[in-house]
Queue: 2 jobs
Job 1
Amino acid sequence: MEPGLYVTFFTQGTSFENDLPPVGPLEHLVIVDRRIVADRKSVHHTDRSGGGNRWIQAELELQRAMGNEPGGARHPDIRVGAPGGVYLRFASFGDVPEPNAVPELGPFAIVVLGRNGLEADGELIATRTGTKRTLWELTRAAGKKLEGVVRPDIAFRSSTTVYHPKVRAAQPRPGIVSRIARPPANPPIPAPTVARPVERGLAPPVAPTGIDEPTGTLLNRITATPRVEERRSVQRDEDSSWREILWRARFVITAVLVAAVVVFGFTSLRTSLTTPSTNVVGLGKVISGPRWDYQVDNVSRAPTAGRARPQGVYLVVRVAATNRGSAGARIVPRDFVVVDASGGEHTALPETDPAYFSDQNTNSPYVWTNSYPVGRAAPLTLIFDVSPSLKGLQLVAAEVPGTRVRLD
């Protein structure tokens, strides 16, 4: 795929199959009110399916958004992606003075402009405001110092392109600092330990060893040696006595261990017989664990995910996950399994699987969410590679093993 920005037009609430193919690459992109300002590097199609009619629709939608074609936008929402990540700035397009430039944000794997605002990698960065025209108000997710800042326009670039010439330059520093702690560039060098000098004529102090050393006169040293040997002999006799006692009691110890195993097994069996059966709920039902709430919103099957192909079929499970724990908590796909009617378990594909959106598969509509704000539902997409013939599928979260969600 050629470097640059790629734009996908879609309508929120509809299936991904109704999305138009991405168009691009674009040299730069600016959202000015409800219009797009963009420069086309070249005509390049990212879809290999050969759907010419859908490509014509995508091209027309781009021209409508740029004001070159009449009729207005048919797909009001926009998804922006780029190999190497998307960078963006909230700015004032044109010659409007901007004394306090907003720093650049990014890079992001995918940016979505929808009816609620602008989301970057699943986190709400800015909301729509204004009456006569659309303005953007930054949220705390954009940075503590940027919360509440309002700008009229949004400019985009990729890792290999620059912003539109009419977007004034900003201070070249990131607006979102990585949460991963980095070691200091010049770590402090510990001061060397210097031994204290010994004063001339004085012997250095000797640490006590815990053994009575014979001191004093020659008579004292001679009489102390037998006492040391006597104590060692007594210690050896005590050790021998304990070994003999343990040897004689070996049968009693073995019997006690066997009885403990039997009691533990009986207790486990009784517990399993009295444990209530697994609770099975349907789609839309909220299940709660110690740290998360889960709600399965949608289940679908897909033969492909962009360029990725499954061994069987992709089972796509969309979940709304609400973080009820601490800030920075994350979810990984291995926290979920799908159980079929025969009891077989199928683990979700890892977030690094080619089925998810990445630089190598920008056609995939499935993006793994890495940010989960406390107290707010975040979209979570789980992908399973399963056999098309499997029936009775149920989703199980590791945090709530006693509850399953019926998927079909």
Job 2
Amino acid sequence: MFKQKKLFTGLLLLLLVLVLVFPVLAVDFPLTVEDDLGYKITMDKKPERIISLAPSNTEILFALGLDEEIVGVTTYANYPEAALSKEKIGTIYEPNIEKIYSLKPDLVLAAGINKLESIERLKELGLKVAGFNPRTVNDIFITLKKIGKLTGKSDTAREIVTDMYIQMSEIQDLVDKVLKDKPRPKVFYEIWNDPLYTAGKGTFIDDVITLAGGINIGRKAHGAWPQYSMEKLLIENPDVYVSSPHSAPHQVTPESVKSRENFKNLKAIKNNRVYVIDTDIINRPSPRIIEGLKQFVKAIFPELAGEIDQIE
């Protein structure tokens, strides 16, 4: 009875938030949106030619139903499959400025992983560039809503965010229930193997680990994406070790992680708590971050796997 009441109250709060927030996201042009760089981008009309400088923004654009409007993406854009056939404008770190300009975009979407000088150069050429750098899962919701507004897709953005929010709430209920009887385990997330890099404080990945019920030991290191020493890893001694298939030049597997020199003394190795999660669903602040959250919950609390898989 209490759980039903809690769910009902949560849904009422969600509806209230949607009613208060989304009317501001009207699709009437011209409109202005402030990005995460502090710039105010004014769109006089719905953009018909959009370029994405990051795979996360590419995923958001496709989720919003803007397939036909996308005229350029980076070489790393691999999801959805339709992104592979889009015109390539260079890499995330070295976009081809001349190519971008020649495509005459109405809007260019940048991300925190893009170089600031590239963004500034595009602005100097007179292009409208909006940059987003979400640091929490909630920030990803906000980014989705802002991109939805800029592109005239506020209604679709609202539907996507609502679905993500509801799934996250259901996941949180399961995690909170487990945490009543168990302490939060220490978690290490490996972004790159040699040298060892992880996600630190102030990143959406750190937020995902916290929401999943873990303690991100990477948040004690300096910086958002810190290099992590083997000595520090042994001292912190994580209960759960999570990597991804592409955190090294060759495919990473739980077995390859367990066989690394000096790793045998880690608690996660001794207890067979090593997991590999698809890089793209956790390293990209896109709608798929909810799938990344589910994967982390299943790694931290395997007993919840069945119930997590039922959340859609």
